[in-house]
Amino acid sequence: MKTTRRASALGSLCSAVFALALLLGGGAVAAAQTPEPQRAFNPDELRVGLEPVAKGLNQPLGAVAANDGSDRLFIVEKGGAIRIFARGALVDQPFLNITDKVDSSGSEQGLLGLAFAPDYARSGLFYVDYIDKDGNTVVARYKVTEDANVADPDSEEVILRQDQPYPNHNGGQLAFGPDGYLYISFGDGGSEGDPQGNGQKHGTWLGKILRIDVDPAHKPADAAYAVPKDNPFVGKDDFKPEIWAYGLRNPWRFSFDKQTGDLYIADVGQNTIEEIDFQPAKDKGGENYGWSIMEGTDCYQAASCDKSGLTMPVAEYTHQKGGCSVTGGFVYRGGQFPTLQGIYFFADYCSGKLWGLGRAADGTWVKSAPTETNAAVSSFGEDEQGELYVCDLNAGILYHLVTTSPQS
């Protein structure tokens, strides 16, 4: 999330906001869905609101479905626990509690990410991203016990580690793509202005999104994962082979459209611009999203810069009206609100403003006017049916995103 401001509101993000800013696949390839014709988005017609469905959470940072047919949502809490929301209520016992392993003392530290293996219903395997007691990133695999609501905290298998030079900009998002591989986001390492130049460095995972194969059946004997052979930088000596995309400052939440496979990345800006980046499903990776040459569509701390080879954001907003840190969401693919179909939602942590983003009839990207939520939006969630949820970090509330339009 932010640097200078998250230092005061997220470690250096939004100075005026509570310093907790929220930190704000392995294996078989999933069958591709046939996309339905996409309705043109008219941003003037969007009417949405938030309906509380669970309270009493401890700094929630994510809501993730296991996609095992159970209709449960697994809620990530910053301190190191994962709670279950099922049948309209929170289960008392945590699904997993690793608070003894997690350093959550910094505003952008803690248990940051969760992803369930594509074959979770059979394997019982899932993955977490957390900051350890040394202040570094750990991505680890865990396994559920015979009790479907309880994971084994002693089953940890570390997949990878990354030293963090500063306590902010840790990224932390995990998600399995439609190809079955695990995608992992890393911020640029922190401080302010990318002092180590990690966004554009090729020999580090910092400032990147990685793509790895974590299927236990595919890994080499001497490694915890395999690198997909079609990763864009495999065989290039100056690049880490795990890199899928780079030029990112702090990608706080990315997601795949569950219908099209398109990738949306919300990248937290420095002092001025928050951005949404986009990668079509047909692309083969390797995008350079510009940081720290660019902040959004502006040259960063320069009157001009070389933009050749850079992928520009499809949407952005500035800090002029209280914004400070973008929180990425999902494309709505649920069935309850047909008028929301195909709209990507994102929000700002400090202001609580929430937007919808889509394509107009002419194919250009357009975003709605902001909806005022008054929530400290730390993350979005998506259930098995494609319904969307919002986590309020400070209030400890999980909301259901609903439409307020009478035509829905």
Structure description:
2% of the residues lie in helices and 35% in strands. The protein has helices at 4-9, 120-123; strands spanning 48-54, 60-65, 73-77, 81-86, 89-90, 96-97, 111-116, 125-131, 137-144, 151-162, 174-176, 182-185, 208-212, 243-246, 251-256, 263-267, 273-279, 294-295, 298-299, 315-318, 326-331, 344-348, 353-359, 365-367, 371-372, 377-382, 388-392, 397-403. The strands form six sheets. Strands 1, 2, 3, 4, 5, 6, 26, 27 and 28 form a nine-stranded mixed sheet that branches. A hairpin with a 4-residue loop joins β27 and β28 (397-403). The protein has 408 residues and is mainly beta. The model is unreliable at 1-35 (pLDDT under 50). The chain has one domain: TolB, C-terminal domain (Neuraminidase, 6 Propeller).
Which properties best describe this structure?
408 residues, mainly beta, Neuraminidase, 2% helix, 35% strand, globular
How many E strands? 28
Distance between the termini: 34 Å
CATH topology call: Neuraminidase
Return the structural class.
mainly beta
In CATH, the homologous superfamily goes by the name TolB, C-terminal domain
Specify Rg, calculated over alpha carbons: 19 Å
Poorly predicted regions are: 1-35
- CATH class identity: Mainly Beta
* CATH architectural label: 6 Propeller
Mean pLDDT: 92
* Portion in helices: under 10%
Element order, helices and strands? HEEEEEEEHEEEEEEEEEEEEEEEEEEEEE
Number of domains: 1
The DSSP helix count reads: 2
Shape summary: globular
Largest sheet: 9 strands, mixed
Strand content: 35-45%
